[in-house]
Structure formats: structure tokens, C-alpha cells
Amino acid sequence: MRHSAYTLAPEMEVQEMEFLIKLITNERLPGSHLEIGTGAGGTLCLMMTAFLDEERPQFIVVDPMRYFPGQFETVQLNLETHGLTLSNTDIRITTSEAAFHSAERLGERFGFILIDGKHSLLNVMLDFRWSRLLNGGRIVCLHDYSKRFPGVQRAVNLFLSRNSNRYRILEIYGSLIAIRKIELRQSREFFLWDWLHAWSQSAYGKAAARIRRFARSFGLQRLWFTGHLKKKAPEELCAESELRHLAEGRVHRTLGSNPEADDLEDLNALISMGLQRFHRVVDFGCGSLRLGRHLISFLDQGYYWGLDVTDKFFTIGLDHWCPNRIRLPSHARFNVLSPSAIAAAAEIAPDIVIVAGVLQCVHPRRLDVVMTQLRALCAAHTQVLVALLEADQPMQLGHFSFRHTSEGITRAAASVGLQIRKFRQGLEPKFLLQQQGNAASRSRERGTLLLLTTTTEAVTLGALCFKSFDGAR
């Protein structure tokens, strides 16, 4: 994995989160609490809800909200899911550098700072300037302090070596490091040659970004030295990659017009466990309608809603499977994933949301984003069916191929208030090869089936009849 300003960091482990919550609640640090880089707002919500309303310090968030499309709306949804509103939080939609200069001019001070923004050496060093505004005896935490993110590790080690008489390591828990400021007086965080080294490291990345922009103007979008700097969400990049493969004539197991894939079995499995024609179904990640075309034919008119990251997938399906039929919006509705599309789909109060062949395209860091979207689709009675290719540990098998643990899914779902019931944890004979440096490890692929609901009292469609359902796009 390349490490750059746009590297997607792993989500905070549950033990790290528990340590963080315990730290801020036990220390009772007076003053505003600052989070630099909030992602989908999951960590922010858990930190805020750890306090009673009347005891909660002011929480300030600094983030340019360009991490993925619709990031601000996703954070807002996450806050509302946890019973919070934007009025409870001071969200500053700007860069860390611009926000720092403004806060410094205003003389702001903080009791706690969590740094979890861009992970390059230069950006972490720039974020450390916020420590000047930290009151004496207070704490600054950084996430992803590990060999996997050398920019973070190098910046933290430099900072501690240059300020050994002013800061002490409080504790390191997983990849979360807590540092206490032991005196208020502070000089500059780094030496001049530290900055020169960091700037030289970032020079290649900036030059490559300029070349990428120039190359794209000529339709050259696959240059090896610029491809890793694309700012699009991983799901969008995955969709573009799959569309290129289909255009080149490659056969895809779950996308396109593969004649060997007929997912009528999955529809029969859904019917056997209680799917009725009058059920309203949202196909989350509908792809090219391998399953969707059967659902559209089975369900009452207008009761199917397909969502995906691009309209090109379901357009392929419509053109191939039903060119002379299902064209009217009144029969089936389709939309590209966005906050407005999710809100529109949620208005029908879906009975079932199907998530099949989706999570293996989602980076672990963005599981909370997907769960927030799924939660926003749910009415009180909605059931979310998730087909998961499970692994013993989070794995990246290629640029856009991932495997998750059921624990990781459970943690992400719980953060937005979704309950999980495991229908099946099937074992399959296939082995996946994961490269870790020069070492290789094997993990069994598992066909796991999960049911997500807003409450544990939600009525299920029928016991374990989904055992034959594996899901397809």
C-alpha cells in the first residue's frame, strides 16, 4: 500500500475507542475538545455521547469535508442517529492550517485534541501546531501511530524528541497514542531541517498531482505514478475499474451479462423465508440487476428501488435483461447513491434492504459510512440483509477488493444503532492469499449472512431459510 496524503487509514479498533472514551471521561479535561479529521463522525459521536448533556464539554471539529462525496451530510446523519444535532458541535469546514491560524489569532485554548487527519509526515507535523493551544496538563492523542503509517509514526517520534522536556507519553494503546503536555511554555515543535525533510518528501506527491490533472485533460487517467492520488471515494474508483474491465470484454462473476449467472435461486430463497409481493425492497448496490431483474418481476409495481454508486451498472442491466420492458420509473426506481437519494428511498419505508456483493468493495475505514447510509434507510420495521464474505482478519486482496470480520461489521453497525443477528456463518473451501510484506498468510473465505435491524424486537422474515442465499449484483 502506498502511503500518501490520501491514504485511507483503518478504523479505530473497539479497544482503542474504549481506551479513548475512558481517558476523556476519567480525566475530565476542562476546556473545549478538538477533533482534527472526523471521517464519517463515528468517533465524534461516541466521544460526545460518553458525557451527560449537562456535563459535555464543547466539541470542535476541523475537517474540509472532502474525504468522500457527501461527507458533511454523512456526519450530520451520524449525529442525528446518536440524538445529537449540528448545534451541539462546532464544525469548521476548512483545512487544519487555516483553522489553526484563525484559532491562534482568537486566542483559543483546548483541554483535549485528537489528531486523525491526513497521514503524511508533513501534514501530521502541521497538525502538531495545534499543541501550542493546548493548556498545560492537558492531552493530545493521535491515531494510527504504527509502522503501517510511517508518516504518523515519524512525526510523533520527532515531536517527542524535540519536546522531551515539555511532553510525556501517557499511554500507547494499539495505534492510539496519548501525550500529556506537562508545562504551558512551548517553543516551535520542530527544527528547520525537520520541515525541509518533510517538504522534500511531499514534493513528489504534489508534482504527481499536477501531472495527473494535466494528463486527465488529455484523457490519460491511468498513469502509474498518479493513479494513487485520485481523490474519489474507493467505491467510485472500484466502479470505474470494473466498468473498464467490462468494456474490455472481461467476464465478471456478478456484473455485466454473464450468461452463466442466473440468480433465480436467490429470489426463491428470499420467497421461502417470507418475501411477499407487497414488500417494499431497496437493493443497496443493485449492480447490473442480476438479482434485481427477478425482484422487479416478482414485486408489485413500483416496490423495487435500486441504488448504486454509478448509474452505468443498472443501465447495463436494463439494456441487457429487459430492453423492452422495465423502463418506466413507476415500475421500478433507480438512483445513484447520495444523501438525497437515500432520503428519497427512505420515504417509502422499505420492508427489506438487500446488501449483496457490496461490502467486499468497501475499505474497512469506510464501513461506518456504509452503515450510516443503511441506518438512514431504515424505518422501525426495516430489515437489512447483508451477504458478507468474511475473513479471520480485515484483508485487502487487491486495489478494490476487501474482506471484513463479522466483529468489524458488528462494531460499525452498533456505532449507528443497528442490531445484528447472524443467520449463517458458512465455511467454503476457497483460500484467499494476503500479502504482508514478504510474508504470506492464508485465511478461509466464509459466506456469512447477517440481518441488521434498528431494534432487537423487529420481526424476522423467517428463521434460517436464507441458507441458500449468497447474493449477487
- Shape label: elongated
- Average pLDDT taken over every residue: 77
Number of domains: 2
The secondary-structure element order is HEHEHEHEHEHEEHHHEHEHEHEHEEEHEE
**Biggest sheet, strands in spatial order?**
3-2-1-4-5-7-6
How does the helix and strand content classify structurally?
alpha/beta
Number of strands: 16
Helices, by number, come to 14
CATH architecture classification of the largest domain? 3-Layer(aba) Sandwich
What radius of gyration results from the CA coordinates?
A: 24 Å
Characterization of the model:
The chain is an alpha/beta fold and 473 residues long. The chain folds into two domains: 14-190, Rossmann fold (3-Layer(aba) Sandwich); 264-468, Vaccinia Virus protein VP39 (Rossmann fold), CATH 3.40.50.150. The chain is 33% helix and 22% strand. The protein has 14 helices and 16 strands. The chain has helices at residues 14-27, 42-49, 71-81, 96-106, 121-127, 150-162, 192-216, 234-247, 264-272, 292-298, 311-321, 339-346, 367-377, 406-414; strands at residues 32-36, 59-62, 89-92, 110-115, 134-142, 167-173, 176-181, 281-284, 304-308, 333-336, 352-355, 383-390, 395-398, 401-403, 419-436, 439-453. The strands form three sheets. It has a seven-stranded mixed beta sheet with strand order 3-2-1-4-5-7-6, sandwiched between helices. It has a seven-stranded mixed beta sheet with strand order 10-9-8-11-12-16-15, with helices on both faces. Helix 10 (292-298) links the parallel strand 8 and strand 9 (304-308). The longest helix is centred in the middle third of the chain and has 25 residues, at 192-216. It is elongated and about 70 Å long. 42% of the residues are buried.
